[in-house]
Amino acid sequence: MGRSINKGKRSMNFKHKYMFLLPGLLVLLAILVFPIGFTVRLSLSSWDSFYPSLDFIGFENYIRLFTDDSRFWEAFGRLSLLSLTTVFLQYIIGFSLALLVWKEIRFQRLFRVLFLIPMMTTPVIMTVVWRTVFHESLGPVNDFFSLFGMQPLWLSSEILSKFTVILVEVWQWTPFMFLLLLAGLLSLPKEPYLAASIDGAGPVRTFIYVTFPLMAPISIGAIIIRLIEASKIMDTVYVLTSGGPGTSTETSSFYIFIKGLREFQFGYSAALSITYLIIMIISFTVIAKILVKLMVRGE
Amino acid sequence: MSLFYSTLKYLVVTLWSMFVIAPFLWALTTSFKDFQSVTSGATYIPWVDFEPTLDGWRSLFKSPAQGGIAIVEPFFNSVMVTAAGSGISIILGTLAAYSLSRFTFRVGPIRNGDITFFFISQRIMPPVVLSIPFFIMLGKLGLLDTLFGLILVYVVLLMPIAVWIMVDFFNKVPVEIDETALIDGCNPYQAFFKVVLPNSVPGIIVAGMFCMIFGWTDFFFAFILTFTEVQLLPVAIVALNSSITPWWSLSAAALVSVAPLVVVAFIVERHLSKGNLSGALK
Prior knowledge:
Chain A is mostly helical. Chain A has twelve helices and no strands.
């Protein structure tokens, strides 16, 4: 969150302040209260397609989830691997690109627009296109690799399919990282750079001692925002590999989707959802703390 | 700056640009192919590698009965849902953000920061968690498979973005502006609508862009909550992704869906260069 220039000046109180807040808050609550409450209640029932009833079975679904469902935990591990890898790559690439078009470069605006475009495209639709790009016999990628006599199975081998998912996610969402970081770079104060150049610091030292520390809060914000979005990886997987081959690209969201909307085990998938949400909230809090420790030294 | 460094710089920037453009170029050539040129292996240059046809582009306007994919109606459905969802989110989100930036709320242990966090934290919800209860709720209200039902869902999806951007934006608008207006005899509503709002246009544009991006590119809710009556563009296109995919129609449709938001990329870049985004996004 940005620093407010109005800190401590929030005295302008008046009784109509709720007229501004409540319309939005109430609409959001009205649309959300039922889904969340219902999901909690559903998670304590055995509702499935055979017996669609809101009975009460206590914590049975949760016990099953913790003792007898390795697939959920595997999907969760895979999600962690995929989202941490993609967000790390997006940060490195996005930051590099932002630094490259920050200062004077020819065709600056053209490059900036180009670097933004993938995030404006619909992930599922671009994934359908990527599927044709990586098609194992008719796509251009394997057309290239066949020059060397190779036909890699981009979508149907266990390791390569993960690589393909990561590549598509990096293509799609590096622009978001790039946008947040470039906006940050453009708002940096000029004085520290003057001081650095007077001290005779080269570009590398300037980056390590001036740019990076100044960008730390923005970096942390951008990484957290991207991690939150990446934890929902689902569209790409659904279209690209449908979780396959086997379950090798199945993420948590996709597994919940299969249990709930394919096998119609509504009660159980609700328990999965609630557990997943709680794990997410805890992990984001922990990750945010770790990032602050790592990036903000001596402050 | 050494020659080596500047060469490297242009090399990296050019390589990444090529990576960005590659799938679009592939979709563009594919959209002019027919069954034969697709199934005979990867080809790239029209007239040299394959004989181009306009079948893919024509099929966008034909009904499925005529062998087309009819994406005109889904396209306008998407436009309506995105526009209405973004519009409502921006209006409600801006009002809420203004109150959170200017007034002090204290309800028990709940403060301004907590309310703001509540709004923004809705983004953590994976669509799949909300989809089942939404499905049941809209079913009970008779709103499944309707534009209005989808718009309601999109408001939940987009309002957090509007609040997030606008709270930070209003925090950067000096409170003296409001105070001057109040001293000049405006009531708080007039102060907001006549003085603060006109000064917030850049922030509203940025928030609007983001709502449009996330509304236009959503797939999952439309996929779960609509069937036959109302079809949005992403759902219509993904439905083509079967084993006998007509790659040419699919590529043409993909390019049509991407085109409107490329304009958004230009607008976002403009605001970025002017420095309007830095305040809004921090």
